[in-house]
């Protein structure tokens, strides 16, 4: 399956085989479908997700700037997804880790009519906690819209139902299972 | 009233909400608060914000539970409204940082929030926000935020 080349953002989903699982994970979350999140890349080290601009999520009607809460949702999803990918790679198990805490610093308002991206990393994984950090940006990661750190609690893989496991892992190419 | 609310427009909207004791009017002006479906009720000096159970707000489909980001957005918007009403704001406060601790899963049911303006200076305000569901003493999340006022 070939995807059209994105000219505004250089991504290489083919180079990062966890992109498919990450896409499926994000699509399982109703709020993320509603917001139109799209996973651009995912690896054991990082996740890159796009949030398209929409009138529905404006926080300041005077300027058309999107609400901080949407940025928080994007970051929480990015970090959570990075944890899923890191655990999948390191322990070959599928776990859904709830957020313990999240701290977001808003550097500048997101420009209206433009997508926002989040680059999230799980930079430390222990037996019970996953530590993450993320940057939300538009044109360049060097001009962040927001910067965040968050920690996630690891829970037993048995907490995941068979339906959810199938939705994420079913019919994947061999090398990605 | 001017549809495209400018600085004084915001003030008018806040004044009108206070005068009529109808704060839904304030929330209607912000598309995101409609998007998540939140509402507010004022009881004297106290304001309680409500986020009704809504399928689109679900994050974890297994429990099911509300997306953590939606809870955060709901709490952030609650703090903004609280500040605007109690400061009689002339403009919308700008978020500087937001820090949230999740204490319990936010189940697929109605959620409520209350805010406390911990400190309000000339330029910046510190607000703490608590969120609960069926029992006010069993918080599902607690948060703290800074806003620029000028």
Question: What is the CATH H-level superfamily of chain B?
Answer: Hotdog Thioesterase
Task: Enumerate how many helices of chain B there are, as a single number.
Answer: 4
Q: Quick one: biggest sheet of chain A?
A: 6 strands, antiparallel
Multimerization status: heterodimer
Please name the CATH topology of chain A: Thiol Ester Dehydrase, Chain A
Question: Which helices and strands occur, and which strands form pairs?
Answer:
The complex is a heterodimer of chains A (177) and B (150).
Chain A: H1 19-27, H2 30-35, E1 38-42, E2 46-51, E3 58-60, E4 65-66, H3 68-91, E5 99-106, E6 116-125, E7 129-137, E8 144-153, H4 162-169
Antiparallel strand pairs in A: 1-2, 2-6, 3-4, 5-8, 6-7, 7-8
Chain B: H1 7-20, H2 24-28, H3 31-36, E1 39-43, E2 46-51, E3 58-60, E4 65-66, H4 68-87, E5 94-102, E6 111-120, E7 124-132, E8 139-148
Explain this structure to me?
- The complex is a heterodimer of chains A (177) and B (150).
- With 177 residues, chain A is of the alpha+beta class.
- Chain A has helices at 19-27, 30-35, 68-91, 162-169, and strands at residues 38-42, 46-51, 58-60, 65-66, 99-106, 116-125, 129-137, 144-153.
- In chain A, strands 1-2-6-7-8-5 form a 6-stranded antiparallel beta sheet. A two-stranded antiparallel ribbon of chain A has the order 3-4.
- In chain A, strand 3 and strand 4 form a beta hairpin.
- The two termini of chain A are 18 Å apart.
- The model of chain A has no long low-confidence stretch (mean pLDDT 91).
- With 150 residues, chain B is of the alpha+beta class.
- Chain B has one domain: Thiol Ester Dehydrase, Chain A, CATH 3.10.129.
- Chain B has 4 helices and 8 strands, in the order αααββββαββββ.
- The model of chain B is unreliable at 1-7 (pLDDT under 50).
- The interface between A and B is large, with 41 and 40 residues.
- Strand 5 (99-106) of chain A pairs antiparallel with strand 5 of chain B, so a sheet runs across the interface.
């Amino acid at each position: 399956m070939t995807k059209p080349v994105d000219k505004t953002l250089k991504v290489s989903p083919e180079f990062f085989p966890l992109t498919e699982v990450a896409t499926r994970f994000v699509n399982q979350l109703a709020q993320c479908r509603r917001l139109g999140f799209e996973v651009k890349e995912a690896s054991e080290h990082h996740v890159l997700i796009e949030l398209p601009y929409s009138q529905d999520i404006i926080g300041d009607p005077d300027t058309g700037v999107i609400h901080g809460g949407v940025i928080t949702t994007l970051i929480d999803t990015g970090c959570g997804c990075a944890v899923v990918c890191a655990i999948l790679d390191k322990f070959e198990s599928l776990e859904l880790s709830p957020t313990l805490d999240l701290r977001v610093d808003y550097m500048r308002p997101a420009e209206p009519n433009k997508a926002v991206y989040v680059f999230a990393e799980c930079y430390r994984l222990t037996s019970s906690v996953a530590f993450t950090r993320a940057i939300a940006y538009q044109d360049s990661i060097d001009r962040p819209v927001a910067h965040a750190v968050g920690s996630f609690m690891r829970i037993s893989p048995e907490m995941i139902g068979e339906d959810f496991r199938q939705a994420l892992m079913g019919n994947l190419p061999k090398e990605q299972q | 009233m001017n549809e495209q609310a400018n600085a004084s427009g915001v003030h008018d909207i806040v004044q009108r909400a206070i005068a009529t004791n109808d704060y839904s009017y304030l929330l209607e002006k912000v598309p995101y608060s409609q998007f998540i479906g939140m509402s507010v009720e004022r009881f004297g000096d106290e304001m309680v914000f409500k986020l009704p159970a809504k399928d689109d707000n679900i994050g974890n489909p297994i429990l099911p539970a509300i997306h953590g980001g939606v809870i955060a957005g709901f709490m952030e918007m609650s703090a903004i409204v609280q500040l605007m009403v109690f400061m009689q704001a002339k403009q919308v406060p700008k978020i500087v940082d937001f820090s949230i601790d999740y204490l319990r899963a936010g189940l697929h049911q109605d959620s409520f929030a209350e805010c406390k303006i911990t400190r309000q200076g000339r330029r910046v305000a510190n607000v703490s926000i608590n969120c609960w569901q069926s029992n006010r003493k069993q918080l599902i999340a607690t948060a703290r935020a800074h806003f620029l006022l000028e």
